[in-house]
What we know:
There is one protein chain. The chain is mainly alpha-helical. 59% of the residues lie in helices and 0% in strands. The longest helix has 16 residues, at 60-75.
Amino acid sequence: MGIFIKVKPIKANRFQKANETDGLLDVSSEQVKLQVNIIDLTEYDLKLIHAFREAIEPQAEEVVDAFYQTILQKWK
């Protein structure tokens, strides 16, 4: 008699996926450039967001709200 274990397929490491993704942060609007610089957003950050999109998307509104609450508290 043998013991069999069902093994789930290994999901691709999201960090590895981010490293393998091509990305370009090309912004023409001066206001958007300023915003990108203020939050120190990088191309790698965008790659991570893309790689984790499935996990982030359902909570995107909450994340944005928390971000702006933090920003507003710092400006008070």
